[in-house]
Amino acid sequence: MDIHDLTRQLQQDNGSKILMLVADGLGGLPQQPGGLTEVETANTPNLDELARKGINGGSIPVKPGISPGSGPGHLGLFGYDPVKYLIGRGALEATGIGFELTANDVAVRCNFCTLDADGNITDRRAQRISSEESTPLTAKLRDVSIAGVEVFVEPVKEHRFVVVFRGDGLGGNISDTDPQETGVPPLDPIAIDEPSQRTAHAAVEFLAQAGEILAGEAKANGLTLRGFAPKPVLPSYEEVYGLRAAAVAVYPMYKGLARLVGMQIVGEAQTLEEQAAVVEQYWDDFDFFFVHYKYTDSTGEDGNFDAKVQKTEHFDRVIPEFTKLNPTVTIVTGDHSTPSFLSSHSWHPVPTVIVAPACRTDACQKFGEQESLLGGLGMFEAKHLMSLALANAGRLAKYGA
Amino acid sequence: MDIHDLTRQLQQDNGSKILMLVADGLGGLPQQPGGLTEVETANTPNLDELARKGINGGSIPVKPGISPGSGPGHLGLFGYDPVKYLIGRGALEATGIGFELTANDVAVRCNFCTLDADGNITDRRAQRISSEESTPLTAKLRDVSIAGVEVFVEPVKEHRFVVVFRGDGLGGNISDTDPQETGVPPLDPIAIDEPSQRTAHAAVEFLAQAGEILAGEAKANGLTLRGFAPKPVLPSYEEVYGLRAAAVAVYPMYKGLARLVGMQIVGEAQTLEEQAAVVEQYWDDFDFFFVHYKYTDSTGEDGNFDAKVQKTEHFDRVIPEFTKLNPTVTIVTGDHSTPSFLSSHSWHPVPTVIVAPACRTDACQKFGEQESLLGGLGMFEAKHLMSLALANAGRLAKYGA
To answer: Phi-psi region for residue B113, left (φ > 0), alpha (ψ -120 to 50) or beta?
Structure first.
């Protein structure tokens, strides 16, 4: 039994509003032992006020020790067990560029590569061809035509692009063609189950036609296919929580992840200030708002401690633009930590606060990693956050008599 | 899906070293309310230094309230869900005396007992016959001969011994013959499934021949069989973690448990100081070292608070002999608590510290039960410790994109 089996039967609508502010990669580490993290270094009066008014703790993104990508990180926050619900690589890549997958699609991550005269790979990334060079090539590949299967080709960045096969009954269980080494030719795409035979045939046909189209190219005269994946099947927010949910994100990846759980993408905001304005604009139309802020993650990924501090302070400054709307429940969290010290996503629990009338405030006086250890939420797996949000919103009935 | 499904796919080798120091039964209780535990009473400058440098918390051996034996206690620390992976009683008893089980074995815990002239049990433990008297009897029982089945008989202690049946296709699902009362005869061993029929026949034959061999004995003229169990099937450290693992233990039980998960037993150390020398000797040959220290448990079992304090101080004194090797990750923990106050294993969380460059240090200044409540690990189930160790060692790739 999973969490949704409970929320499905207990959900009730009382008109309350839940606001979830996600600062990507929010948690961090000190640069040296005994120092402060990025969040602790930042001047964050508004987050500190939420910490004083709310209940605090550390969100474990997946399980202790597991560092998630954006997919499992957000699924956890959305209340979907990220170990149970997998988003295939191809589907995530398509989601990341804003391609809206349908139930008839199989998405594939593709690399341009360089082949020698014998057809052996000499560079698995086509000499890291620039986006300026590769984007016209993906456009040319749209000339591929396969009977009974619609094909979409979309650029991602540099040597990376996405192919989506659309048709009835296409399975997604097909082996990668990237041999993961040079000096050998790409592998054939092989169907691993019966329903994937048609998809494998389409892939073979795609590769044949694409090979002719690319034959004269100096760098990108070949390609490999990896991570074949259908659209993941996730129950919707409406169904599992009874929430009309809106997502206010800037980057396609997060819009895409929100769309997978049935959130409606609203507005075209490009800054956090504009995101706040969008939330205000749509305030009466939804019960739940997911707001995504990217830059605490990207600065952490860059290993730029000071920049992450500044982005955290920016995030903090805009918070009153959201809280002035008086949501019943306000949550601030992150999908994972991205310590500048590691320049990567990490497993460390993410400081998290829930503010609501019945949240049972704790002793925390500031928002941050150390202080959150005094918090009433303790260390909890992210997948439990939505149940806590619903409870604090008065949206969960008693379980059992 | 369990933890190993994640570690199997995410494991990566970066040459780092993980050292796990297990003080058996480490956690304790104060002798009176408001007092200090054994660990808190002990002078432990080296553990305190680790607590200051590391991240601390309390390891729940199995689930809250569950007091484990050595088997589940260690399986949890090794990252094997102790509720999922069971080691049958017979297999654990054989493991405990250093008997190396094979896939063709069924091990049984045996008791000598005393029978009256009618064959009814008058003493289920053969008047607690001494090991000096019982060991020659187990030697005599090696004369039993069963067609197609090899039989091993090994003394344990006093009235207890182990029988191992070895042969092709022997099932391990056979009822106990100990009726758990006196005044009645031993029960027959009954096969509970088809593959156990052969084993049950071997057991019947063993009991018949053993009965004749023991017929003239005053105390031990009978025996009972309990806890029939095959060798447990556990995936190896190599497979689930990609770790070449070594175990440095003094007692057969802990060597046996380590062997069950594929660790290699190295050295013949008899003291903790010698164990440190063995770890140093094999430092380059393994990625992971499990070091077991017994005496914090045995003194706790004896209810000897002062002796447990002393053994804790001994454990502390030798720690620099291990940490001087500069492991990437150092862990100090215990398989369960053994409070002198209870003279037994207990369910209480075990103070635990992980020291590593990216561990995210907390406010703990000392190593111990109360202080660990300030720690960043919180209260966690022991089975998550290995994922945290691997993450801190940089040995887990990102989960999902």
So the answer is: beta
Is residue A179 packed enough to be buried (19+ CB in 10 Å), middle (13-18) or exposed (0-12)? Answer: middle
Report helix, strand or coil for A278. helix
Secondary structure, 3-state, B23-77: ECCEECCCCCCCCCCHHHHCCCHHHHHHHHHCEEEEEECCCCCCCCCHHHHHHHH
Distance in Å, alpha carbon of A96 to nearest chain B alpha carbon: 10
Radius of gyration of chain B (CA): 23
User: Would you give the distance in Å from CA B117 to the centre of its chain?
Assistant: 40
Q: Tell whether B389 lies on the interface with A, counting CB pairs under 8 A.
A: yes
Mean pLDDT in consecutive groups of 10 residues from the start of chain A, 401 residues: 93 98 98 94 98 98 97 97 92 91 96 96 95 96 96 95 96 95 96 95 97 96 96 96 97 92 96 98 98 97 98 98 98 98 98 98 98 97 98 97 84
| Number of residues assigned to chain B | 401
Q: Is B388 on the interface with A (CB under 8 A)?
A: yes
The first and second tokens of residue A115, run together, are 């082949």
- The predicted pLDDT at position A1 comes to 72
User: Which distant-in-sequence residues (6+ apart) come within 8 Å of A212 by Cβ?
Assistant: none
- With an 8 Å Cβ cutoff, are B399 and A92 in contact? no
Question: Cα Rg for chain A, rounded, in angstroms?
Answer: 23
**What single letter denotes the amino acid at residue B186?**
P
Do B358 and A342 lie within an 8 Å CB cutoff?
A: yes
Question: How many other CB atoms sit within 10 Å of the CB of residue B218?
Answer: 10
Which residue's structure tokens are 């164990």? Answer: B275
* CB-based contact, A76 to chain B, within 8 Å: no
Please tell me what DSSP assigns to residue B187.
P
Strands A160-166 vs A150-157: parallel, antiparallel or unpaired: antiparallel
Cα distance from A70 to chain B (closest Cα, Å)?
A: 6
CB B102 within 8 A of CB B166: yes
B376:A349 CB<8 A: yes
Kindly provide the ipTM of the predicted complex, given to two decimals: 0.90
CA distance B170 to B151: 12
> Quick check: A367 and A332 in contact, CB under 8 A?
yes
Q: Which two tokens stand for residue A265?
A: 């993408």
Size of interface A-B (CB pairs under 8 A): 95
Cβ atoms within 10 A of the Cβ of A333, count?
23
Residue range B345-401, pLDDT digits in tens: 999 999 999 999 999 999 999 999 999 999 999 999 999 999 999 999 999 999 987
Q: How far is CA A119 from the centre of its chain?
A: 36
Between the two ends of chain B, the Cα-to-Cα distance in Å is 19
Residue A76, amino acid: G
In three-state secondary structure terms, A26 is strand
Look up the pTM and report it.
0.92
Instruction: Give the neighbor-by-neighbor strand order of the sheet with B55-60.
Output: B264-265, B245-248, B288-293, B18-23, B329-333, B350-355, B55-60, B378-381
A window 85-144, beta carbon within 8 A of B: 86-87, 89, 92-93, 96
Distance CA A83, CA A60 (A): 13
